[in-house]
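ok so I'm stuck.
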Amino acid sequence: MTYQISDMERNILKLISEEEEICGYDLWKRLSSKGIKCHSNHLYVVLKEMEKEGILKARWAEERNHNGTNKHLYSIGREGKEVMNSALRDSLNLLMTSYLNEMRQVKDYSGFAKVIVRASMELRLPIPVEGDRIVLSIPYHDPLTCYQIIFSLTDSFPNSSVYLVTPPKMEIYETRPNLTVLHGWRYDMPLKDGFADLLILEGFPSQVSEEETVRECVRVLKVGGNFVVQVKNTMVEEREPEFPFFSEYVEKLYYELFQQDRKISREKVAAILPRYFKGQTETDIMGTTMFYGKR
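replied:
not stuck anymore, here's the structure
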């Protein structure tokens, strides 16, 4: 969409989004109550232009206005929903950038390392040993891993080589002696067959099926290698939370707006993995469903 909305139009959208429908007069009263000054005649000109652009849609109702005329009710149009989603994406990008910058300042990842150890124990995952190759494959600006898990892995296993597969254009600004950053996709990793001793997959990409992603992971793993996939419960049909915390709602918005990951069925993934792995187990830690299998 090329149409640029004004501050007044943005305020109108925000207020209308709080209602299913609202008439121009009630909208004017709501704007006035919030200290937003606008002459009623000018407001109707703005509403008409927004309707013309598809940002709003309107209908005549049988219900009468205060002046005896039929109410003209306004609601969010198709283009208006895209404007709002675009604003949400920009806000989430800003939030994620701020979060990543904050994580760059953290030097002690021992607390998060304990989560990795706990997950390893619950999944019965062997701890990496000296010389192992660990591959972590993530989506762009993954809010679940970011810097904590990346540097927890490198710090916890200094004698192992950690390979981070990120989408093109995603920059990792900090380095570790045992960290190598590669650009690729979770379903198409720039690694040779049988490369990894341990592969950790963050979520399932929306571009391909779950099984296609699993097959790519099998290709990269060596025989006897260990595989872990972790999916935030926000993206698990059987375990979707009711969002009692703001952070969970932010995660929900993140996945819906950026559409990098697909929502999965725990039962479906649990049925796919035994075809490729043995000793398959799963657990739930800190709102994340984790699966493990050995190739």
